[in-house]
Amino acid sequence: MTPNDIRSAAAEILRENDRGAYTVPTKGLYPFQWNWDSCLTALGLAQLDEDRAWTEIETLFAHQWPDGMVPHIVFHVYDDGYFPGPDVWATGRPTPTSGITQPPVAGFALRRLFETATDGEAAKRRARALLGAVDRWHAWFYEMRDPAGEGLVAIIHPWESGRDNSIDWDDAFERVPRDGIAPYTRRDTQHADPDHRPTNAQYDRYLWLVERFRSLGWDNTKLHDASPFQVVDPGFNAILIRSCADLAWLADWLDEPEIARVNRERASRGLAALESLWSAGHGQYLCRDRRTGALIDSPSVGGLLPAFAPISPARAKAIATRIQALAASARYLVPSHDPADPRFSAKRYWRGPTWLIVNYMIADGLTRAGEWETANAIRSASIDLITTGGFAEYYDPHTGEPCGGGRFTWTAAMVLEFLKSAEPQP
Predict the structure, then answer these.
(1) Under 8 Å between Cβ of 75 and 6
(2) Residue 273 φ then ψ, to 5°
(3) Dihedral angle at the C-alpha atoms of 371, 109, 41, 12, nearest 10 degrees?
(4) Which residues fall within 8 angstroms of residue 396, CB to CB, at 6 or more apart?
(5) List of E strands, 301-416
(6) What would the DSSP string read from start to end of 364-396?
(7) Is this structure's pTM higher than 0.90?
């Protein structure tokens, strides 16, 4: 496929999964609006229709909770092909939503849309309308998920990470019971190979947490301490740090000095605290179990994602070196877990496969840090995966075999971004 062929195919997928004011990740498997999917999909949409790209994020934030949280799913329409649906979450919102959140990439997406806009006045107007909402979401994280004020936030459900069944969560997840949950029928395995999806035991624990939080009325002042699963994820925090830094930049442009100041301070404090997660032995960051205080010995892509944040040049170089080493054991960068780890699984969701969404964020950060060789290797591998396996949800990092859902929205959007970054700049 030529770049133009790939670009045309990506645009077709974005249009196919467009529902007017929001996109679905893919038909069947994910029939609703997902949080970080939408924010990053907007970047690809902007190459086709800038107005539509802004609408994608506006639709998401129209369903922000009063306390500032932006939920990870918005159930715009009824569809019984997905579980757990709105009746299980029972959050009581006017438009049903889930009761947990997802990686807060919106600040980054707003800046990128603003910087690349061809209609500057429209971009100012629409960015200004979203600025306060994103700032409130950032404030929510540090109020609700960083009770000790350390500068790092915790996730309280694996789904919040976006890396649902990562090996990173295994030990902490064992504390979550499996008993006492309501009977249920999974829907995901009707749309994708069960061997590529989380296990039934993991799903039991996912549902136990949902039912626990529901029993507390989705009161975010209680959920952090009530969860037996509290993990400080470096990748999640890096995304938040980057979004705080980018929102501060945007607030300066829009003459909102207080929003700029507060978000700059959040980013600075987070970067300093992130160093507590560095592992010299692994040459990358690690998660920390907040319940025990110990680092989690699990070298996943979550520990490479901090490249997306404005970390020091020395740390960015170390992460680039780590990715170059992974290239010796994974044909298609960047595997979601180290293939040398015996727990690695090449085709099972976040336990080994390569995801273009993660590739995009890591490559973006490495480019900003001047690590162009590694960033270009990631971009090249990403495009090769499209020619090998089409626009899949994720891929076997050894063979390029497509896994999970097909004709995937954010994969198409990231391909458009990769192709754009490869174009000669004026």
Answers:
(1) no
(2) -70, -30
(3) -80
(4) 332, 346, 347, 352, 353, 354, 403
(5) 394-395, 402-403
(6) HHHHHTT-HHHHHHHHHHHHHHHHHH-S-SEE-
(7) yes
Structure tokens at 305: 């994602």
DSSP secondary structure letter of residue 98: -
Q: Where are the alpha helices (DSSP H) in 145-199?
A: 158-161, 170-173
Interatomic CA distance for residues 235 and 303, integer angstroms: 6
DSSP 181: P
**Residues forming the active site:** 164, 393
Determine the Cα–Cα distance for residues 187 and 197; give it in Å rounded to an integer. 11
Residues 6+ away with beta carbon under 8 Å from 217: none
367-385: buried (b, 16+ CB within 10 Å) or exposed (e) per residue?
bbbebeebbebbbebbbeb
- CB-CB contact of 35 with 107 (8 Å): no
- What is the identity of the amino acid at 14? L
pLDDT tens digit string along 337-391? 999 999 999 999 999 999 999 999 999 999 999 999 999 999 999 999 999 999 9
304 Cβ contact partners less than 8 Å away, ≥ 6 residues apart: 235, 284, 285, 319, 322, 323, 334, 362
Quote the tokens at residue 336: 């979601």
Q: How far apart are CA 56 and CA 47, in angstroms?
A: 13
Q: What is the pLDDT of residue 423?
A: 60
Task: Report the distance separating Cα 147 and Cα 351, nearest Å.
Answer: 30
Cα–Cα distances (Å) from 5 to 8, 11, 184, in that order, read 5, 10, 43
**Cα–Cα distance for residue pair 375/320, rounded to 1 Å:** 8
Tell me which residue of 95, 115, 104 sits closest to 139, measured CA to CA.
104
Residue 232's H or E segment, with its range, is: strand 231-232
CA distance readout (Å), 129 to 60, 275, 409: 13, 34, 26
Pick from 360, 107, 345, 84: nearest CA to 244: 107
Confidence check: pLDDT of 165 > 90:
yes
Domains of the chain (ranges; CATH) run: 12-420 (1.50.10.10)
> Looking at this protein, which amino acid is placed at residue 264?
R
